[in-house]
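Similar to Glyoxal reductase acc. no. O32210: structure tokens wanted.
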Amino acid sequence: MSSKLTFTSRLPVAHAHPPTTRPHIGFGVYLSPEDVCKASCLTALKHGYRAIDTAQYYENEAQVGEAVRESGIPREEIFITTKIMTPEGSVEKSYQKCLKSVEDIGLGYVDLFLIHTPSSGPEGRKEMWQALERLLKEGKTKAIGVSNYGVAHIEEIKTFSDVMPAANQVELHVQCQQRPITEYCTANGINVEAYCPIARGKYLDDPTLKQIADSHNVTVAQVLIRWILQMGFIPYPKSDHADRIKQNADLYGFELSEEQMRILGMMDRGHDGAVVPQKTECP
Ligand SMILES: NC(=O)c1ccc[n+]([C@@H]2O[C@H](COP(=O)([O-])OP(=O)(O)OC[C@H]3O[C@@H](n4cnc5c(N)ncnc54)[C@H](OP(=O)(O)O)[C@@H]3O)[C@@H](O)[C@H]2O)c1
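Answer:
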């Protein structure tokens, strides 16, 4: 499968009507400061990234939109994701909060709107989902989904909605492979997006990873992101450095062998490998 991967590879957007596709790799902007974010996004777009992941919580939605407009790239070629962090107290108020994100981004619509975390409890999750459903109906977003959700959270959606999430964005890298939820999402046709794909640099000195990287004359970061692509998941690496932005997308001149994929598969440390406190198992 992996030898056919290219930078322009696309995946189907799960549960989209009519069917549509999305880039197989994107660019993340968490902790990208307001005064730097636009330049980083422009660099990413220049180097061929066509998906960007922001959030209300990141306080840089407007800068992402500015970069896209300034890039001159046709809107329909770009896939923008944002996220609602907390419920506002009613479906109407949460909807208005989301609408403000769409307006702040200023591109007419977003491609994917996610609930950032399940941690606000069942009523909050339901309120935010219903707000997103309204946004979807009105064409303000092309798809809706979730982040940091466990199996029980997604099953819960079925009790009050016919709309299944298009995506679940979770912390996902070699050391934190999230098997229960990724297997569930794959079985239910939900796109799995990988955040912290290079574990925020935590394992770049790992000798096994270094050995695999050296065998392909690439960096450990490239091995980590390539592993996600070969697993069929969607990585969102972040960087505010042009050389790294370019490097993190330079993944198509090598392929991890079956044996290397087997070795990497054994490096899972579950929650012990996570760099973000795990929320996916909470009821
Ligand atoms: N849904 C959620 O709850 C959630 C949570 C976390 C993240 N996310 C999303 O996922 C994206 C990625 O996650 P992340 O930013 O936390 O982690 P990441 O992409 O795994 O790592 C980013 C960190 O690694 C550094 N870095 C980037 N490329 C590198 C390279 N080639 N070599 C060495 N260091 C490198 C960056 O520094 P420089 O910037 O200085 O290069 C930054 O400190 C976020 O930006 C966000 O869009 C979502």
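DSSP finds ten helices and ten strands in the chain. The chain has one domain: 2-268.

Cheers.
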